[in-house]
Structures are given as structure tokens and as C-alpha cells.
């Protein structure tokens, strides 16, 4: 539960652990205690599940970002600006992208963003300030 944070995922992984144990029982060499072996299987499956969730969330954020940016004005300069913003955000971490979407698409307050993301308002402010500076610099340079 500490790694996955959601009871439904914990139940799925627990079932996968039992399947893995049954499938690999003959391969257990006894070099470690059975508890250590099971713990290792469990940890590996949890880490795999977390990686898959992160990759899937990254794809969802990219699609959400592209959809959000597509609904603005369609003048030539606005299109160029959206392309520059998209390039900048593709190089950003997941939390920065979420803050961008919440701030500029969902029009949430910093307090609302902090609560939604489980971070402090200061963290939201810092990320927004850094993002604004990078956007201004990128737009001034033309790319």
C-alpha cells in the first residue's frame, strides 16, 4: 500500500504475486528465506506497476495538453506561440504540465491547484513563476 497508494492496485498486485509464486515455485533455490523471496517478487511487481502508470499518465497528459492548446485563437502568431508552448511543456516534468493545465486551461487558483496536486501553494507559485519565465524567454527568442 505504501508504494501503490490505492487499495484496488494493491489487490491486483497481491493476486499477481500469488500467480508469480506458483509459476516460479520450482525455481526457488532456497538461498534466501521464502519471506525475502516473496518480498522481492512483491516489490518488483509494485515497481513495474508504478512505471506503467507513470508512462500511461505521461501519454494522457500529452494528449490533454495538445487538446487544450488546440482550442485557442488560430491566428498565425497564436499558432506559433502554441507550438512553442507545446515544445517547452514536452520538456517539462509531469507536475509542471499539470500546473500549466490547471492554471491556463482550467483557470484554477493556486490554492485549488495545491490541493488538487497535494503540494504547497508555494510549490505551485514557484513552478508557475519558472514556467512563465521559460515561456517568455522562448517566445522572445522565437522558439
Would you give an account of this structure?
This protein is mainly alpha-helical and 143 residues long. It has two domains: 7-56; 72-141, Arc Repressor Mutant, subunit A, CATH 1.10.10.10. It has helices at residues 7-24, 34-69, 76-90, 94-105, 110-117, 121-141. The radius of gyration is 22 Å and the shape is elongated. The model is unreliable at 73-79 (pLDDT under 50).
Brief write-up:
This protein has 143 residues and is an all-alpha fold.
Give the overall form: elongated
Structural class: mainly alpha
If you consult CATH, what is the topology of the largest domain? Arc Repressor Mutant, subunit A
- What is the percentage of strand-forming residues? under 5%
Instruction: Characterize the main sheet.
Output: none
Which CATH class of the largest domain is shown? Answer: Mainly Alpha
How many domains? The number is: 2
> Mean pLDDT, as a whole number?
77
Provide the CATH superfamily of the largest domain.
Winged helix-like DNA-binding domain superfamily/Winged helix DNA-binding domain
* Tally of individual helices: 6
Count of extended strands: 0
Uncertain residue ranges? 73-79
Query: In percent, how helical is the residue content?
Result: over 70%
Which CATH architecture of the largest domain is right?
Answer: Orthogonal Bundle
Q: Helices and strands, in N-to-C order?
A: HHHHHH
State the separation between the terminal residues, measured CA to CA. 44 Å
Rg over CA atoms: 22 Å
Amino acid at each position: 500500500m505504501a508504494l501503490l497508494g490505492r487499495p484496488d492496485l494493491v489487490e491486483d498486485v497481491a493476486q499477481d504475486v500469488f500467480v508469480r509464486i506458483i509459476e516460479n515455485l520450482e525455481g526457488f533455490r532456497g538461498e534466501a528465506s521464502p519471506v525475502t523471496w516473496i518480498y522481492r517478487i512483491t516489490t518488483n511487481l509494485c515497481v513495474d506497476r508504478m512505471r506503467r502508470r507513470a508512462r500511461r499518465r505521461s501519454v494522457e497528459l500529452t494528449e490533454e495538453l495538445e487538446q487544450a492548446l488546440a482550442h485557442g485563437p488560430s491566428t498565425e502568431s497564436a499558432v506559433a506561440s502554441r507550438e512553442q508552448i507545446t515544445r517547452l511543456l514536452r520538456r517539462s516534468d509531469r507536475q509542471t504540465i499539470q500546473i500549466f493545465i490547471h492554471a491556463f486551461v482550467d483557470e484554477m487558483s493556486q490554492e485549488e491547484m495545491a490541493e488538487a496536486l497535494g503540494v504547497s501553494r508555494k510549490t505551485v507559485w514557484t513552478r508557475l513563476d519558472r514556467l512563465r519565465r521559460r515561456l517568455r524567454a522562448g517566445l522572445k527568442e522565437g522558439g
